[in-house]
Amino acid sequence: MTTALPRYSRISGTGSYLPPDRVSNADLAARLARDGIETSDEWIVERTGIRFRHFAAADVAVSDLALIASRRALEAADCDPGAIDLIIVATSTPDMVFPSVACILQAKLGIAGCAAFDVQAVCSGFVYALTVADSMIKTGSASKALVVGAEVFSRILDFKDRTTCVLFGDGAGAVVLEASETPGILATELHADGRYVDILCVPGHVSGGNVLGDPLLKMDGPAVFKLAVGVLESVARSVLEKAGRTGADIDWLIPHQANIRIMQSTAKKLKLAPSKLIATVDRHGNTSAASIPLALDESVRAGTIGRGDTVLLEGVGGGFTWGAALIDF
Ligand code: UT7
Prior knowledge:
single chain, Peroxisomal Thiolase, Chain A, domain 1, 4-stranded mixed beta sheet, 32% helix, binds oxa(dethia)-CoA
């Protein structure tokens, strides 16, 4: 009798893409000033750490960003698109109401037949998608997954609301996740609390050929801030315990890139040296589900994160949703 080897999943390649239009705080302040709305580089940097964000051109869809990030991840993994047997895209800004961005991406990659679907968990979306892909690989339903976080949040921003429109940007990040005899993904954990739907939402919807309700992003920033700092600490501790590791084992922390103050507070609570915190929020803004894979790919390509490093990924956002994945890269 042969004993089946334990099956794990491991990231074999990363990729990302930012649209070329880079908008500085000063550019944005000038745009808002035309409508009589005041903001400044000083306020945005001090309260959020954000200096730049990228906006996609009007004719670019989220699947276009996802396609470039995916091709880069496939190339890094030395993986032919035809070998992919699962595509999961985390997004809250899809090309269409349906079908999914994952199906559109599948067609753009020139492949067909494998499972493809979207995950909608807003800024926690990538951690949700990675967790689902990991589970499907561990149970044998997939062997090579393409897991993508991609967003065009610029399309749902209210440029008359200075409390939100200065925060978000567009972009995409992707990983190839493969079956492996060694982990890989050490532990994951997901949570949601739907009682907080209203503190971060886009309430509009399509009905009878019209958009009903306001289709622009609403956020109670201070309420989200307060919840985020609490759950990012608790889910980090929980996922470490699940994996039988401690904070001392973490080489790199990649939290959702929303606000440098939230990220630094999380690192401090976990007693991590500030140098272990990966921050791209200054250059990308908050790209929702794309923020974690974008930061991961940038760090891998810069040589900061190397093979064997232990990385804690943490998402938090609308829903309210949150989650973490501890990985040996
Ligand atoms: O992606 C999902 C997760 N999202 C997050 O984690 C976001 C969490 N929230 C935050 O990051 C912060 O709450 C914000 C960055 C959104 C806001 O920072 P804050 O320190 O919580 O500021 P606040 O909302 O308490 O506003 C302070 C002041 C207010 O003026 P008053 O009432 O004190 O006179 C705002 O009107 O700052 C004002 N303000 C601005 N001033 C200049 C708000 N937005 C701006 C702005 N420019 N863009």
